[in-house]
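Let us practice reading a record.
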Amino acid sequence: MRNHRIKAGIDYRRIKSSLNAPSVEAEVIIESLQAIQTNAAEEGDVITAAPGTPIYHESSLFVQDEWHVSKRVSLSAGLRWDVNPAPTDAHGQGPYTIEGDINDPQSLTLAPRGKSLWRTSWHNLAPRLGLAWIARQDPGHETVFRTGVGVFYDTGNEYASSGYHGIGTGALAIYTPISLPFTASQLNLTPSTAPPYTGASIYAFAPNLQLPYTLEWNVSVEQALGKDQSLTLSYVGASGQRLLEQQELQLESLNPNFGTVIYTKNGLPSNYQSLQTKFQRTVTHGLQAIGSYTWSHSIDSGSSNGLLAYRRGNSDFDLRSQFTGGLLWQSQYRGTSRMLNTLVQGWGLDGHFIARTGLPVNLFGETITDPGTGQQYYGGVNFSPGVPTYLYGPAYPGGRRLNPNAFTVVTEPGQNGDVPRNFFRAFNCVQLDTAVTRTFALHETLKLEFRAEAFNVLNHPIFGYVNPILTNSTFGEATQTLNESLPRVSPLFQQGGPRSLQFALKLLF
């Protein structure tokens, strides 16, 4: 079709993931020197886990039309249909769920093994639309306008997999106090599904669970600043709907057959708004540079599934301001002196700079159990009028801490306190990383590259996790540096660590 490029297709993913956790794990809690001397640990925990092999089936159909409306205008429209059922188990050893009405705990029973965790949703349609318009075509002064909007679905598989840590697939025994070593009988635990179901948590799901989705939109203007440079201004937004929430319910007093039930359902929204600017210079005379600044605000009702009451406020990852800059330089010297060429050619310099405001800190007090529903969560805190919020001095990491006397705990169920969620901020992050490279030509097709890298080259101290629990002695203090607070990456290579150096040799052929 003239000026149209239509694509259609099918995506199918079958993911088989074997879970091979240690068959037995044991740990002890020792809180005093006397407990060590008398071999009487305050608590000993033994955990057993059975192997499992969940299988995830993710399917979708899509169609997309790239339409060149004119020489200056392009339109992209598409529609995607997603079908993501609850996972199954390759050997029929999947997690258990419940039957009955979660709002009537007396009606709850343990569902037969193999029962689907939730009913499959068949109406997950995700339309997308994008527009690009070249508003100005003068060489070196081009102006391009872009905008787009779309719907994107999540799979919910992270929550579905949590049941492999629950009833029938694991067992937990707590001994208080305990002498070491553990005896054979203490370590010999067998997962059980006989009532009462108090040996492990039960992970349950709303039967009409729907896949969460996010509506995303953006508008940007890119302006050329000469032949090799451009400036882009953007507005980006996203609205999460039907997000999944987990509630930890303690049901012993409402149904003697049940203990802890982790219940997942839909209901939470989120919102993200940002203004972004980016300057970019392509490689010219050996120099390439990029710099970007983002102001953003992220709001939700619960960014993690910890023991917290859901409460709308700043997200846990709400970064208000962030600047990132990068610079790459390669020597382009070409002289007449062979010796000078040998000394100067092949050198390169990389630089990366980041400066951002601190992550939010959500304060909470004592653990509260709602007697009406069995839901367990951390209570909020109240301000103490007239008391300074911060204490300052060299004795505190980073020079400041939250004042414990400025807050009081909330003990009544259903009361959040008057301190807003994620109201306070941890420490800012400023870091410069650099690298120096030198390439040696050994042969026509053989080169040796030397690279020396310095992370946090200025050795600027960057603090991370701030203890948010009011009842703890280190409340309001930074107890870790940033690199130890951020997950998923080794602290050695994570942002926010002390200055470190790395040297590498690479043979290119």
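A brief commentary: Residues 338-344 form the longest helix (7 residues).
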